[in-house]
Amino acid sequence: MLHEKLIRDIEQVVGPAGLITDAERMQSYLSDWRNAYSGKAAMVVRPASTEEVAAVVRLCHQAAVAVVPQGGNTGLCGGSIPDQSGAQVVLSLTRMNAIRAVDTGNETITVEAGVILQNLQEAAAEVGRLFPLSLGAEGSCTVGGILATNAGGTAVLRYGNMRDLTLGLEVVLPDGQIWNGLRGLRKDNTGYDLKHLFIGAEGTLGIITAAVLKLYPAPRSTTTAWVALPSTEAAIELIALMRGQCGDRLTGFEMMSRQSVEFVVNHVAGCNDLFAQVYPWYVLIEVSDTLADAGLAQMLETALADAFEREIVLDAVIASNETQVAGLWAIREGISEAQNHEGPSLKHDISVPVSSIPAFIEAADQRLLEVFPGVRIVAYGHVGDGNLHYNISKPVGSEDAPFKAQAEAIMQVIYDATLQFSGSISAEHGLGQSKREAAVRYKDPLELQLMQAIKTTLDPAGLMNPGKVL
């Protein structure tokens, strides 16, 4: 059989340690961490080098077998899960986990795709630098995965998303060729910037095997505050005020609805309400500086005092030590986990212009509650870049199945509101398989035609992560 020959040929490339064909051992690669998506595979291949990746891809290309690239498998849209045919090859990059080079003079670090984000952060810290991208899955997500989805996280406001943090890539193309674009250049005006084709492409155009990423001076002082607000409009006013008074020291500005915080308080150990009174909205603000004594606490207090006078802020507390800072971030990072305790949640990762956030939330909330009375709306996100996680939990006491059956209709209400405010149906999670059909309805047809043309040019056989994005 074809697969038997392919298995033998691939084993010659990666060795026994790089090949999994046993059904039980393959299981962890065939479903996502939420068990929302699952599939089957002919085999799981775990190459240990770029050359091995290229050789495996060439063999699959010659055999007309589809390849599904996979990193830490922490995605939310099923982008790294094979289909149900059992004919696809899952190619896991987790063995490619080397820090290849650190160049403090150029403020760059070169890493392989399987490096876990937290290990990348620690490698930067060891040389007194900062790799600023941070998100809830940083202990398990990998560089390849966060590049493939152009992840953002909590510090986009100051440092940008993964696209902004990347200078060069190494990519195995669908036919097995290796494009070596590992250049640590901040200026290279010699034509099309090819790396941007692969960032955010979710493995549909090629497999990212390594990257040159930007480093920054490590902050030596940080101050964090938890602030209560009367409305989302107040959040937009407050971030403008903070930017005006703190400049680029403003590193994080995370907004959370009361429902979001309530779930965390009810379900995450050690997280409690910080104010005696309940407020409709909260923000977590973080400012940082490379100076050890930058006067950040005074700066933040001054800005918040101004906000109190303008009646933008209702209450506030500034963390006085690292334990309190960790406690504040635990509330923000605990929302997704806490929502799972309330039954199935329908997760939506949208973006709109920052100024449109209040109007979007008002329109989407109103329409949802009209059509689906009792649903609980868990809205939170990175206000500075317009990215909202707009998640829906079932009404109290209702059954799971009827709620899940409404997922498509609920999604349409949210995406219609997103389109109304010139937004995007995916801000940082990608399209994967969950939003592929929605993209047809909500993206400009010409954009989709151009995307398909690029896909056809680079992957004419359609073997690279088929069924995802397009």
From TrEMBL:
InterPro entries xrefs: FAD-bd_oxidored_4_C, FAD-bd_PCMH, FAD-bd_PCMH-like_sf, FAD-bd_PCMH_sub1, FAD-bd_PCMH_sub2, FAD-linked_Oxase-like_C, FAD-oxidored/transferase_4, Oxid_FAD_bind_N
Organism for this UniProt entry: Pseudomonas segetis
Domain FAD-binding PCMH-type, first and last residues per copy: 37-218
Signal sequence region: none
Coiled-coil region(s): none
Gene Ontology biological process terms from the UniProt entry: respiratory electron transport chain
Domain of life from the UniProt record: Bacteria
Flavoprotein among keywords: yes
The protein, known as: FAD/FMN-containing dehydrogenase
UniProt entry keywords in alphabetical sequence: FAD, Flavoprotein
Required co-factors: FAD
Record-stated family: Belongs to the FAD-binding oxidoreductase/transferase type 4 family.
Highest classification ranks of the organism: Bacteria, Pseudomonadati, Pseudomonadota, Gammaproteobacteria, Pseudomonadales
GO molecular function annotation: catalytic activity; FAD binding
